[in-house]
């Protein structure tokens, strides 16, 4: 028997299927979109999954709903706590309200986009701000959970959250199948690694000849470096990126164990490439993408992920961007 705690063991594909059943009728089946002009420009076929149209504006609603759905009545009565760059916190606060969870405490960085802080509060979450350069968000979240008797719902290092994220990969594979398409790759953003891990497990079961690729910002390329080194490595303290949603300090224990042997590769893109991708997402698809959500399109446009002569599914994972940043992207 493994010494690894159950919640840090990789979920089976059946758990992803069960998560898909839980979210059916509650979350949206976000569309796969295509641009003929972009296909001609890149010499391949791109199917863009518009996950920014999801409940709370990002894929995070999937993992949050699956995890909170599995709370016991006593746990719902006590409440939950989490730590988040913003999107997971919104999703937990939203899911808590829908599921009758008494309270949701969300630890967020003080420099998170104002829109994300305000949205988390509007969903009923209690927001506690911290300094991401000097304080440890996980330590704060765990201390709050212990002090108040709350159930901790981490953003990626929990098999139930990973299984929820994996429903995106399952859904995309099924949608492509209905279109008569067999994708060569699925490209997702990567921070703590939960989306990549869940999708890698789903893709492994449904499209074993295809691979999941992850994309990170230049200053937060911890997954790329960790896979190359064969061990988890942290990002440099004080690192900066426009991609606020993908600034986890290092890969998760669970997610790294899943991703290291399964990912087809990890691409790294610059902030300028991200801004251009946000502009293109709006011009070609009419979609608003936050910086972290546009990482995948940035990798395709810049050639960091090969799309020529292939069929590639890209996930635009979130749309929660402050107006000033979006305006900067449109003017890029």
One letter per element, helices H and strands E, the order comes to HEHEHHEHEHEHEHEHEHHEHHEH
Question: Structural class per helix/strand content?
Answer: alpha/beta
The overall average pLDDT, rounded, is 97
- Overall geometry comes to globular
Q: How much helix, percentage-wise, in residues? A: 40-55%
Q: What is the CA-CA span between the terminal residues? A: 54 Å
Count of extended strands: 10
Q: Major β-sheet, in short? A: 6 strands, mixed
Strand order of the largest sheet: 1-2-10-7-8-9
**How much of the residues is beta strand, in percent?**
5-15%
- Number of helical stretches of at least 4 residues: 14
Task: Provide a descriptive summary of the structure in words.
The protein is α/β, with parallel strands linked by helices. The protein contains 14 helices and 10 strands. The protein has helices at residues 13-23, 36-42, 60-69, 73-78, 87-99, 114-122, 137-148, 159-178, 194-206, 222-229, 253-259, 271-285, 295-302, 323-330; strands at residues 32-33, 45-50, 80-83, 104-109, 126-130, 151-152, 185-189, 211-217, 265-269, 311-316. The chain has a 6-stranded mixed beta sheet with strand order 1-2-10-7-8-9, with helices on both faces. A 4-stranded parallel beta sheet has the order 5-4-3-6, with helices on both faces. Helix 8 crosses helix 9, helix 9 (194-206) packs parallel to helix 11 (253-259) and helix 12 crosses helix 13 (295-302). The longest helix has 20 residues, at 159-178. The N and C termini lie far apart (54 Å). 55% of the residues are buried. The model has no long low-confidence stretch (mean pLDDT 97).
């Amino acid at each position: 028997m493994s010494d690894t705690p159950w919640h840090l063991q990789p979920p089976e594909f059946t758990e992803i299927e069960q998560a898909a059943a839980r979210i059916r009728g509650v979350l949206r089946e976000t569309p796969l979109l295509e641009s003929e002009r972009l296909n001609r420009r890149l010499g391949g076929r791109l199917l863009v999954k518009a996950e920014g149209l999801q409940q709370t504006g990002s894929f995070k609603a999937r993992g949050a709903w699956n995890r909170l759905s599995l709370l016991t009545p006593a746990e719902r009565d006590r409440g939950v706590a989490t730590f988040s760059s913003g999107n997971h916190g919104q999703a937990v606060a939203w899911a808590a309200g829908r599921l009758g969870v008494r309270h949701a405490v969300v630890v967020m960085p003080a420099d998170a986009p104002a829109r994300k802080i305000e949205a988390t509060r509007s969903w009923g979450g209690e927001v506690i701000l911290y300094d991401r350069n000097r304080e440890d968000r996980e330590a704060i979240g765990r201390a709050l959970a212990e002090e108040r008797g709350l159930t901790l719902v981490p953003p990626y290092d929990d098999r139930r959250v990973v299984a929820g994220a994996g429903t995106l990969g399952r859904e995309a594979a099924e949608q492509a199948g209905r279109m008569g398409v067999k994708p060569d790759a699925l490209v997702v953003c990567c921070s703590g690694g939960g989306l990549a891990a869940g999708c890698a497990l789903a893709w492994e079961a449904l499209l074993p000849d295809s691979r999941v690729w992850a994309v990170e910002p230049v200053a937060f390329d911890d997954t790329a470096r960790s896979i190359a080194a064969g061990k988890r490595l942290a990002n440099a303290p004080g690192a900066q990126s426009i991609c606020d949603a993908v600034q986890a300090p290092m890969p998760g224990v669970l997610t790294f164990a899943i991703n290291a042997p399964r990912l087809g590769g990890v691409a790294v893109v610059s902030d300028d490439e991200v801004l251009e991708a946000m502009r293109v997402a709006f011009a070609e698809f009419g979609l608003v993408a936050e910086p972290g959500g546009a990482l995948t399109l940035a990798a395709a446009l810049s050639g960091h992920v090969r799309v020529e002569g292939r069929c590639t599914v890209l996930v635009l994972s979130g749309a929660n961007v402050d107006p000033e940043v979006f305006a900067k992207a449109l003017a890029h």
